[in-house]
Structures are given as structure tokens and as C-alpha cells.
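ingest -> validate -> predict -> emit
validate: passed (alphabet ok, no gaps, 211 aa)
predict: started
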Amino acid sequence: MFLSLSLICLTVALLLAQVNKMTATPIAEAKAMKLQNAIREVVPAFDNDPVAEAYRMAGGSGDSLLVYPARQGDELVGFAINSYSNNGFSGNIQIMVGFDMEHHIVNYAVLQHGETPGLGSKMMEWFRDATRPSQSVIGRDLSQGALTVTKDGGDVDAITASTITSRAFMEAVNRAYTVYSGSMEDAWSGATTATDEETEETTNEGGIGNE
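emit:
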């Protein structure tokens, strides 16, 4: 009996290992495709590979978020930020938030959540309903202030009967904007540095020395 059970366990283990090996690549490809689609959904049109250019930036609360820069040619057109909140009704919420270069939210995509179906799960569409501007966050300029729900003195209508989820969503969006602001500062700093270097090279090539 012991030998039979051992053989059965060994066979099952080998089968599971083989299935895991066979499915690992398709699962990884599916995750990569989901990420690419989420980025494409939330930022202006781009022709670079944001995933290949991704980097981490501190979010100001002891953590860091993944930033995906979107470029059209050599021009930055926006950033997609992978953000989160651990304060959802059922815990963790993962979202991708896209910003243009003028601090406006272009769009968002919910990557993962465990919120109640029919209630908190409505965040997937609730905050981008163009027919209800008071609940949509699309196009909002976060340089004017963080987003908060009306129950907390803000101007965004929370999901009906899901204020906790709505607050968590706003937290994730505001966290993304903090990181976006840092990315914008770095982008402008880099642009200024490049301009200064180009000016110096042009001046030297023109034979005009610096005083």
C-alpha cells in the first residue's frame, strides 16, 4: 500500500510539473498582453515600448510605483502609472492610471480587485462615465488638488453604496499622480539639461567662446 501511494504521488507530481511547464509561457504572454493593452488604453497614442522603458519611482509614502513613459517619436506624450490601494472593501486594488503632459487623467484601467460584484466592482466603468461628469475622473487636472469623494468634501460622486471602494480608488489615483509629478520633474530636468548641452555645442561650433 505504501509503495502504491508513493507511485501515485510521484506520478501526480510529475504530471503537475509538466502541466505547469506547459502553461507557464502562455500565462506569462497573457499577462504581458494584458499589461500592454492597459497601457495603450490609458495614454495618448505612442510608438515606443513603454514596458521596455519602465522604471520605478518613489511614491512619497515609503513605496515605489512602476512608471511607463509613452513617446511619439522623441516626444513624451504621457505616462501610465501602475498604482494601488490596500484600503478597498476587500483589500487590495490595482489600477493603471494614464496622464498626458498637462496633468490631466487620460483614462484608467482596473487591473485587479476583489470588490463586491455589482457594487464596488462598478469602479471599472463608474469613474469614466462621460454622461455623468460629477462622477467621472477623466480629463481632471490633478495639479488643482487631489481627488476626493463628495462625502469627504470633494467633488467626485462615490459609487452608490460603495464609499469604501470609491475612497480606495481615489487613493490609488492620487498616489499615481504623486509619482507622475516626480516623473514630470525628471522629464523637464532632462529636457533642460539636453537643451543646455545642445546650446553649448552650437556655440562652440560657431567659434564663440564663453566668457
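Confidence is low (pLDDT under 50) at residues 191-211.
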